[in-house]
Amino acid sequence: MTTNQSPSEIARTVLKIEADALIMMRDGLPDGFDAAVTALLQVKGRVIVSGMGKSGHIAAKIAATMASTGTPAQTVHPGEASHGDLGMITAADAVILISNSGETRELADIIAHTRRFAIPLIAITKKASSTLGQQADHLLQLPDAPEACSIGMAPTTSTTCTLAMGDALAVALMRLRGFDSANFQALHPGGTLGAQLLRVSAVMHKGDALPIVHEATAMGETLLEMTAKGFGVAAVVENARLTGVITDGDLRRNLDHLMQRNAGEVATRAPLTIGPDALLSEALGIMNAHKISALFVTGDEGVLQGLVHIHDALRAGVA
Asked: 273: number of CA atoms within 13 Å, CB side?
């Protein structure tokens, strides 16, 4: 079949068809959605997501999204389920089965297994009257919208709607569980997402690694401390509180008679600081904005707790 449409025109047509279907699904959200979420919240085991073909690929993404947002989940391939993997589905679990027609024969054994052991079954299908739709405890019916392909048969609109329905379930569960950024970071220790959620306290230097001098410390000793610790800065501390900082810039500005002065006379007062519970990405933003390479970490009443260097942020993957 030929067409007079350009590739961009075809793309816009596809996206409009799928977008219209998503709006239709939003406006006609299945009545059973709340009940399905409630059932999933009560699951003691895992949420098992399964489908055949393209639905199987969508099932894997839904399970992965749930698992990364506080709802333990996994996929079970329907073909493998019929050859022993049904043992992965226990009475403590719930099952989400995906089939546009609701008559995918490979799902029959999983359906029967859920009915035999009273395992909650949630169906995502376009056909409420199908075998899957009739057997399910909770039906999430997809909108009766056309596929976006030119022959109206390849899973396009239906898989987009299924994926969006899975996202809606995952986010609803996430919100109702109180799953926050700290929980998310614990499940995403690698990669950019995990790095963006790291706290300053996770990477800051502390204890003997800190370059610390006192108000009356001679500048000769101060220079030795700055050189030994290797951060290019020193914290001026009195009674555990940060009262000022000395940077390379401060040294240049006070070259005249530098060695006749003490740390308190050279220090910059009211320095920029950050708290230990702040995100590392926030610390990097402050350092970039003020063109500095290190930031001291303080707690209550300005008590010095640590130091974070721009290299710490870069090594952690925050960019």
From this structure: 24
